[in-house]
Amino acid sequence: MDQREFRNTVGTFATGVTIITAKGEDGKNIGLTANAFSSLSLDPPLILVCIDKKSSSVPAFQKGRPFVVNILSEEQENDCWSFAKGGVDKFVNAQYELSPNGVPILKENLSTIICDVFEVLEGGDHVIVTGFVKEISRNEEKKPLIFYGGNICKLTVPAYSNK
Questions:
Q1: What letter would DSSP give residue 5?
Q2: I want to staple 118 with a disulfide (CB 3.0 to 4.6 A). Which of 7, 86, 132, 148 is the partner?
């Protein structure tokens, strides 16, 4: 199968955009943009995120270690692209605070999910990190940043409704 055509085909599935943050083994802040994110289970509360095996961030995701899923709002497009780059200090222009366990939480998030690594599974050229959800928050006034067809998009619908 042609990899480019496969990528283009799955790219027709519109997704939200997340930045996954953690602390590296050396104590430095780690962050990466990911759109391969999903809820997994309500009981127990689990999520999953897929990370490229070539990412230098992979060693930070070991069982029991904390991480944060920052679900981006449309105001965070610059963060999306900054955290997608490798080999740079991704936090230099980012506005963030630290969670109680020292993991960066980006400001202006649509939603924030604080987790501990539950399990790490093999998934082809990615690892599948499952997270046990410890804390959640959301901002119903914001709208999501959307990724579709290799581009960032914004919704033209009202903010989240719990109806």
A1: H
A2: 132
pLDDT tens digit sequence for 133-159: 999 999 989 999 998 888 888 777 666
- For residue 153, is it within any domain? no
Q: Is 160 buried (19+), middle (13-18) or exposed (0-12) by CB count in 10 A?
A: middle
pTM (two decimals): 0.90
Q: Containing domain of residue 21, as a range?
A: 16-147
Residue 122 inside a domain? The answer is yes
As a whole number, mean pLDDT of residues 66-73 equals 97
Per the CB < 8 A criterion, the answer to whether 115 and 132 are in contact is yes
DSSP notation for 43-85? TTTEEEEEEETT-TTGGG--TT-EEEEEEPBGGGHHHHHHHH-
Q: Is residue 34, in this structure, part of any structural domain at all?
A: yes
Cα 80 to Cα 87: distance, rounded to the nearest angstrom: 15
Q: What is the number of domains present in the chain? A: 1
CB 126 within 8 Å of CB 50: yes
CATH number where 41 lies: 2.30.110.10
In a domain, 139, yes or no: yes
How buried is 68 (Cβ within 10 angstroms: 0-12 exposed, 13-18 middle, 19+ buried)? buried
Give the residue among 8, 29, 51 at the shortest CA–CA distance from 150.
Answer: 8
